[in-house]
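Assemble and predict.
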Amino acid sequence: MATRAEVLRSMRRAAGLLAGFAVLGAVLVALTWESTAERIAANEQDFLLRSLADVLPADGYDNAVHEDAITVTDPELLGTPEPVTVYRARRDGKPVAAVLTPTAPAGYSGPIRLLVGIRADGTLGGVRVVSHRETPGLGDKIEVERNDWIRGFKGRSLQDPRPGRWAVQRDGGVFDQFTGATITPRAVVSAVRDALIYFDRNRDALFAAPAGAAGLPSPAAGDEEEE
Amino acid sequence: MSGRAAEVMRTGLWSNNPGLVQLLGLCPLLAVSTSFVNGLGLGIATTLVLLLSNVTVSLIRDVVRPEIRIPVFVLVIASFVTAVELAMNAWFHELYRVLGIFIPLIVTNCAIIGRAEAFASRERPGLAALDGIAMGLGFTAVLVTLGAARELIGQGTLFAGAHMMFGEAARAVELQAFDGGFLLALLPPGAFIGLGLLVAAKNLVDAGLQRRQPAAPPLPAAAPGEAA
């Protein structure tokens, strides 16, 4: 029979061993993180810059777009209760375009995160999908690598097509749906339209807010025409 | 001792293949095998983790007391998976974005803790490493075969996205066999059907091999392997 002291000793030894391995594991992860963190941050920034460049007019701006960002919140038009990042592109300090990062909440299998570039005059610079979980082979045609559909937004605005026609063809609009998938393009089209409406209502406040700001300077400006 | 090594290889690649016989790690296997490149990416990551965890578990097999061996194995595996995830994020960023959640989920691949427990904790580091490689390659082979089949049937392409792993030059091998495709293959049911067919095919081959040497006494264990 093991005495109480023996049991305690063996428990202590086991606990010590376990703690030792926990420390070793933590050290391994910390060292790997230490040696990859810089590269990962660079990758992520690179990816963001490339995506932003895709939806902004080429060479039309001269600021560091990814640093000139604010966050705004508008669950109704931006599709998420979370704060949404808005990047601003400027040339000689004057507003050129804004990139909104709204969510299309009504995707077929969950929310679709978008990058919507809107020029100061209200026309679309481009739209890209950041992440989605749509059906491979059907809904994933919204990815630019798979289909040119998403490029069709470039140059559109709230006046083009007319308001009632901002929809997929099945709903009487001008945008193609995919064979076998209507819900996905419908979600994207209405999210882009809502982003345009949001931009239209808040244009000046969006560009006026200082970089890093959370929320717009005058939230009341949202609902009325200012000029 | 090389007979032992050959047997370890054969076990992992064929007779006790983690994907086709042990049916371990089904979640990542079924979810990620929508294309050849996805399968290869996850296969390599899993193999790497298996190799590292098997060697480590084998090295510490005399130190670790039985009552804490499972938590220690989990710690070892989780640490290596996190390290591999960080490394992939750093060096194969695009692929990392595609495989997403399935890299951290390697932790939950029962094949890894299964090998640690059933093999590595009882064998020399050399054999444990070989077992990790064999099991990893066996798993990768299933991932890649299923991925290629589903990709070809489901969307008519092969090796699509190879540039994410091998750089821009690899775009040359990306094939478009035909347009469209049979969508079912890409959906979850297609994964189950495909894996079922692969398991059946393996069993057919095994049955065929057995018939060819009817009452062969089981003593020369290497003979059926050479026939395969």
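Strands of chain B lie at 157-158, 175-176.
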